[in-house]
Amino acid sequence: MKQGEAFRSPAELLAHLLRDQAEVMAQIVRDATRRVNEVEDRLLANRIGSSRSQLGTLQRVLVRLQRLLAPELAALISEQNNRTLFLLTVVTVLALPFNVVGGSSA
């Protein structure tokens, strides 16, 4: 965030912070992908000697990234489940009067 940068609302500030966070995460993924490709190239060229320690470092970076993203993924799934449950509740509430009327005449 730049010094003196003004935001019109808290939502705009939050969006800005989330964009910054996304850029950092994307850079981590790009760096890890580049490093994995380098190790893979060395492996294919049978020059794997020094790559073992790099693989360990990459594994730790990717595990940290996975731990950062896991709660976000869980939140997205939870949000989708909540929307589905809300929709089912609305349908049930709307259909209930028809069931009561239809059920009492039988």
What does this structure look like?
The protein is mainly α and 106 residues long. The protein has one domain (10-104). 84% of the residues lie in helices and 0% in strands. It has helices at residues 10-44, 51-104. Helix 1 crosses helix 2. The longest helix has 54 residues, at 51-104.
Which key phrases capture this entry?
0% strand, elongated, mainly alpha, 106 residues
**Ends distance:** 67 Å
Radius of gyration: 25 Å
The overall strand count is: 0
Strand content: under 5%
Indicate the low-confidence ranges by residue numbers.
none
Topology:
Blueprint: H1 10-44, H2 51-104
Helix pairs in contact: 1-2
In a nutshell, what does this entry contain?
The protein is mainly α and 106 residues long. The protein has one domain (10-104). The protein has 2 helices and no strands.
